[in-house]
Amino acid sequence: MGLGPVMLDILGTNLTAEDEARLRHPLVGGVILFTRNYTSPRQLTELTASIRALRSPALLIAVDHEGGRVQRFRDGFTRIPAMRELGKIWDEHPKRAKHLAQHAGYVLAAELRACGVDFSFTPVLDVDFGSSGVIGDRAFHSDPQAIAELAHSLLVGMRHGGMHTVGKHFPGHGFVRADSHLEIPVDERSYTDIELCDLVPFRQMVNYGLTAVMPAHVIYPKVDKYPAGFSKIWLKDVLRGELGFEGCIFSDDLSMEGATVAGGIVQRAEAALQAGCDMVLVCNRPDLADELLAGLSWEMPATGKARLAQMRGRPHAGTLVQLHEQTEFVKAVHEVASIGTGTAELPLA
Predict the structure, then answer these.
(1) pLDDT of amino acid 115
(2) Catalytic site residue 181?
(3) Residue 253 pairs with which residues in a beta bridge?
(4) Does any domain span residue 181?
(5) What is the pLDDT of residue 341?
(6) Which pLDDT value is given to residue 346?
(7) Which domain, by its residues, includes 209?
């Protein structure tokens, strides 16, 4: 049984019979973990092993682990600062900021991989216009070029740590005030305005080898009447056509308010998949997950299966404890700890 196009969450710190039944469904291809699924590195490692053992090929395992206020696992993990802290350093020392971003990416990825997580939904490539509370300090900077440079360094570090990258929220969530978790945001700007600003980090990151993209639940009415995640114009014409992106496209959570414009949960998933998403997410609503699995009919194309297969993390050796004993990793953790404290040293090269 191959991977299906749906990613779901689970209830707690270990798999229940209810979880296992859902995850064995042929439409399912991945699991996203949250803070409620975590108590310790050892528990997380056991949980991810049990998820992998359910299916062959194994389900993908993901998490929103960006740093700052969006870091799902904390006790036993290195504190990753909000990406805004790297942007502040960029303003004074761009070279140092890139150096630290690379270390942050390495630490973030290596720790997750040591516990069996395939990838994190990061980096945030949104431009900070100073208006979006839900984005806020998750954004690197207000300058698109600074975002591209810092995100590229983070990408290099994450690759070194064995993990792929997911750029979000395409084509940009930073301009609108509304939180798509709670409302249906509308961005009234023209395509040209978006292209000259918000698309810059995405375009450059595609060229740098970005593996996956997550579109925003935002409507850009001067481009399309549908939110980007349900829009063939944004996903097929712009992202794949104009930007030349060939990687995986994950929908944002279809249980969010910003997704309700597409109808019920089955209609939302169909709209996202038809628009060009390879995998759709349904989080924190087991009732909607069951409704989707009962009602969705979708045959995964070979290209989609190949894109999803690319999201697997690189094999890792050893536990999180053993990782923390490696000289290279300890040095990287020291560098990351200096971010935002004013004690970071300039890199030697």
Answers:
(1) 97
(2) yes
(3) 281
(4) yes
(5) 65
(6) 37
(7) 6-27+40-56+64-337
Residue 34 domain flag: no
Question: Is residue 285 in some structural domain?
Answer: yes
Q: What is the sign, positive or negative, of the torsion defined by CA atoms of 295, 33, 178, 220? A: negative
**Residue 111 placed within a domain:** yes
**Spatial contact of 219 and 227, defined as CB atoms under 8 Å apart:** yes
pLDDT for position 305: 93
pLDDT at 52: 97
Q: What share of the chain is helix, strand, coil (3-state, %, to 5)?
A: 45, 10, 45
Residue 250: its pLDDT value, please?
98
Report whether the peptide linkage leading into residue 301 is cis, meaning its omega lies within 30 degrees of zero: no
Q: Which of 9, 19, 224, 252 is catalytic?
A: 252
- Provide the pLDDT for residue 347: 37
- Going through the chain in order, the beta strands assigned E by DSSP cover 6-8, 28-33, 60-63, 65-67, 70-71, 119-120, 166-170, 212-215, 248-253, 279-282
Any idea what the CATH number is for the domain that residue 83 is in? 3.20.20.300
Instruction: For residue 253, give Cα distances in angstroms to 258, 281, 283, 285, 318.
Output: 9, 5, 6, 10, 32
Q: Which of these is catalytic: 93, 160, 181, 324?
A: 181
Three-state SS at 281: strand
Q: How many structural domains are present in the chain?
A: 1
Q: Which residues of the chain have pLDDT under 50?
A: 343-349
